[in-house]
Design goal:
336 residues, alpha+beta, six-stranded mixed β-sheet, five-stranded mixed β-sheet, extended, disordered C terminus
Length: 336
């Protein structure tokens, strides 16, 4: 015996189906409105140009210190060095107590970086010589890397700046301000800093300098520098080196992202002694092309976007020498 269906049942079922269809329609509409994302092909040509725009970033990348992250927050442990030295004891003497290392659990929130791209449809359709959009994508990709490198070096890490802290703000244990000492850097100043870092179990494998300091260091080491004193850092580039107290050759990478006296009146130069194993760039989204962003103009609205932050697991492994002036003076040019 079939169940009797009333008009009320029919209307109820129609209303339900109508609501489901409307919800499905909205879902399709929202999905269609979302931009599509494409991972940028990291070609050899882009890698070559990336070193010129972002040398610090590329060095860390070559060391395996640019890592993918699976969450909007990067969680990590930061260690403060403690005196864990060894000592001799008598045969039946109690083992002495050990100082605990100070380990802090920290988090850093991902920061958003974006480089907008806008190319008119007319420019794209009317140009048969080269791909206008492709050229813009490559240029904006390098812009993102360049800003990343600037932030890794001198990022403020404030709400106003919207960026993360760079090494100039992170390093606090081993610092030397030469502004009160005529601003003159020397081998002795660098070696003293290296000694302090080594004593705290840091290992300097990169010297990051401004162009003016690089000019002075090359002049300083010229009398005893040989061709093989320049090293290949695995990025297709050879750089000159500074001999450490251990006899190892520390690569010297020049970055324009430290303040340059030729750019600002009264500004000073900086040298950073870096232990790359203590610094990581974490990325939730590497530089990615977002296409199809909403636009009301006759143009393709795209952007290169990335979500990233930098962490330092042991700032005491690094050193910072600031307040350097006079690298263009006769004092430095003569290598005195």
């Amino acid at each position: 015996m079939s169940e009797e269906i009333t008009m009320k049942d029919v209307l109820t079922k129609l209303n339900t189906q109508s609501a489901e269809l409307e919800e499905l329609k909205r879902t399709y509409q929202e999905t269609a409105d979302y931009p599509t994302s494409t991972q940028i092909e990291y070609t050899d040509v882009l890698k070559e140009k990336a070193f010129e725009k972002a040398p610090f970033f590329r060095f860390l990348e070559s060391k395996g210190q640019v890592l993918d992250n699976k969450a909007a927050y990067a969680g990590y442990f930061s260690v403060t060095e403690a005196n864990m030295g060894a000592s001799y004891i008598d045969e039946l003497e109690d083992v002495p107590g050990a100082a605990d290392e100070s380990i802090s659990e920290l988090t850093e929130k991902m920061k958003t970086i974006v480089a907008p791209i806008e190319v008119s449809d007319l420019a794209r359709l009317g140009n048969t010589k080269f791909d206008v959009l492709k050229r813009q994508i490559d240029r904006k990709f390098l812009d993102v890397l360049n800003l990343t490198d600037q932030t890794m070096t001198a990022g403020a890490g404030t709400a106003a700046a919207k960026d993360f802290k760079g090494i100039e703000k992170i390093i606090s244990t081993h610092t030397e301000d030469l502004s009160s000492d005529d601003g003159k850097i020397s081998e002795s100043v660098i070696d003293d800093m290296l000694k302090d870092i080594y004593n705290d179990n840091g290992y300097t494998d990169l010297m990051l300098v401004s162009p003016n300091v690089a000019k002075y260091l090359k002049a300083l080491t010229a009398p005893y520098r040989r061709f093989n004193d320049s090293v290949d850092i695995g990025l297709g580039h050879r750089v000159f080196t500074y001999e450490s107290l251990l006899g190892t050759q520390i690569p010297v990478i020049v970055t324009p992202n430290f303040t340059d006296p030729n750019k600002q009146s009264g500004a000073t130069d900086t040298v950073a002694l870096i232990d790359s194993s203590s610094i990581e760039l974490r990325r939730l989204l590497p530089p990615t092309l977002l296409q199809g962003l909403p636009t009301q103009k006759l143009a393709t609205r795209n952007a290169i976007a990335a979500f990233q932050t930098m962490i330092c697991t042991g700032e005491f492994c690094n050193g910072l020498i600031t307040g350097i002036t006079g690298c263009e003076s006769k004092y430095y040019d003569d290598g005195e």
